[in-house]
Amino acid sequence: MAHQQRSQAHLSPFSDTEDSAHLARLLAPRLAYFAGVARTEHVTRAAEQMGVPQSTLSRAMVRLEQDLGVDLFARHGRTVSLTPAGRAFLASVERALAEVERAAEQVRADADPATGKVAFGFLHTMGSETVPGLIRAFRADHPGVRFSLVQNYGEAMLEGLRSGELDLCLTSPVPDAPDLVGRRLDEQKLRLVVPADHPLAGRKRVRLAEAADETFVTLEPGYGMRRITDDLCQEAGFRPRIAFEGEEAETLRGLVAAGLGVALLPPPAVARPGVVELTVTAPRAVREIGVAWLDGHPDTPPVAAFKKFLLSRRGRLLPE
């Protein structure tokens, strides 16, 4: 009964999430000490093994019990034995400490210069040739570095940088945000893609204004290419009529081949039958490709090495 009353007296203030978090912060520094004493059941021996003064260890155990409001040990001079509450607490503490140890090993492994990890994001349209070529070239000098790859549209990748999911990303347009750093690496000419039987299909070059009356298939709002398409059409003096909004450039090419509309797209990795790709002479139809990262975020050695590699490819990022 005494134990129950003591527990109620100390634990009752911790009645919501914020107070529980406060309690966890109080307990955490003493958990390893508790585990050491619990395993040896001897304060002096535990203090010697952990390299701390015996008085420090004794005070830590008293404070731990006070914060919990529960007796964890029955004391017999320098020797102690676990109470039932202490045994139950030890099992959870050992699991928590093991998880912390695994997490520490993981972050150390990810930061290892030779075998660490780079979380790297890139646009869908760069997945077939550009990114595989970059990774292959980088790993020629860094064969053990691992990659966690995310293929997504631009805005989603920028959020991935902010959330810590990504270390670096290749995106377009190059972001201009106070919390991000963006560096232009290259530019890619865009084509007006038309069906093979389209009246413009016999041409090699076209002014975008000549497509003002066409129906367009585009990427969804939020994609960098959609923003570029809208901006270029506006510069050419018209607002595009949209027949379909998708997520993949090659899906759009297939719909162009089916006669659903025309599209502004970067060059394909492999020529697709059923469409003709026209050079746009006006306005200047290009998209900038850049690398971005979170400003002020320290790099691990493998991330720093890959960032340096990407920046060294300025002007020759894209395959010819």
Protein described:
Mean pLDDT is 90; it is low at 1-15. It is built from ten helices and 13 strands. The longest helix has 28 residues, at 84-111. The termini are far apart. It has helices spanning 2-11, 17-40, 43-50, 54-68, 84-111, 130-139, 154-163, 224-235, 249-257, 301-312, and strands at residues 73-76, 79-82, 117-122, 146-151, 168-171, 180-189, 191-195, 205-207, 215-219, 241-246, 263-265, 275-282, 286-294. The protein has a five-stranded mixed β-sheet with strand order 4-3-5-13-6, with helices on both faces. The chain is an alpha/beta fold.
Summary keywords:
320 residues, alpha/beta, five-stranded mixed β-sheet, 10 helices, elongated, disordered N terminus
Largest sheet: 5 strands, mixed
Write down the secondary-structure element order: HHHHEEHEHEHEEEEEHEHEEEH
Structural class by secondary-structure content: alpha/beta
Distance between the termini: 80 Å
Question: In brief, what are we looking at here?
Answer:
This protein has 10 helices and 13 strands. With 320 residues, it is of the alpha/beta class. β1 and β2 form a beta hairpin.
